[in-house]
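Might you be able to check the backbone structure tokens below? Thank you kindly.
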Amino acid sequence: CAAPRNLLSWGLLKNRRMTGHNGDGQLPTLALEGEAEFMKDREVVVDGLILTANGPEASELSALEFMKMLY
């Protein structure tokens, strides 16, 4: 849930859709600065080979989406 902030700072989410935990309210601004599209109402977003998730409550859905990516 915090990894999207790192991915943004490393430039890996540029021109991609993403989600993540927005506890401090800063993620939409960080996404805009990183040229990413923040999808606030999505628990999990897969864009290409990158999967982002919105907190621990998205763990089961994240695992299922990750499995889809593998097969």
Summary: Residues 59-70 form the longest helix (12 residues). The chain has a mean pLDDT of 94.
